[in-house]
Amino acid sequence: MAHRAETTLAWPASLAQDHEGRVQVRFPDFPEALTDGADEAEALAEAADCLAEAVAARIADGEELPAPSPLRRGMHAVPLPPVLAYKAALFSAMRRDGVSKSELARRLDIDEKDMRRLLDPRYRGSKVERLHAALAACGVAARITLVDTVRRERLLDATTRPGRGTIRPAPAVTTRRAE
Fold first, then answer.
1. What pLDDT, on the 0 to 100 scale, is given for residue 36?
2. Are the C-beta atoms of 87 and 119 separated by less than 8 Å?
3. Residue 17's beta-bridge partner residues?
4. Phi/psi at 176 (nearest 5 deg)?
5. Average pLDDT, consecutive stretches of 10 residues, N- to C-terminus, the chain (179 residues)
6. pLDDT reported for residue 9
7. In the chain, what are the domains?
8. Nearest one of 32, 26, 31 to 14, comparing CA atoms
9. What one-character DSSP code corresponds to residue 171?
10. How far apart (Å, rounded) are the C-alpha atoms in residues 80 and 77?
11. How many angstroms from the chain centroid is the CA of residue 31?
């Protein structure tokens, strides 16, 4: 059986209170990404924005994205927004395989300008379906994992009665190499 390498696109962050009582956030994998908040909830909200900016900047600059380090005790997993997670996975797969934007545009039978937009972390009009197709053209299958962090149970379980709960956005996008 072929080995499946899966990656969850959420990076660990450490929180520490500074001398003024604010909660500082640091990402071991992104030394340039630092932020803070008045309390833990605000710090984690700021952390999500900070991580997204750090990843977007690295993609825009053509710099490698580090794989998420293991989550250690006391750390928080901070996921990317879903569309940016897809773009980060696509950028990393193209880098790994040495696939140019022109080559991927050819594989997808799209204009090179559309391919540039698909990879642009600041472009908000990218469709998830097109990102899925681009990842598949690089041998990567993407799937969305939903986690109910409140109830700690399966979200779409057969025993769940309709109307009993809410659907929450996925905290991370997981990618795996296609077989």
1. 96
2. yes
3. 23
4. -145, 150
5. 69 96 97 96 96 97 94 94 95 96 96 95 93 94 80 63 47 52
6. 87
7. 10-78 (3.30.160.250), 82-177 (1.10.260)
8. 26
9. S
10. 10
11. 18
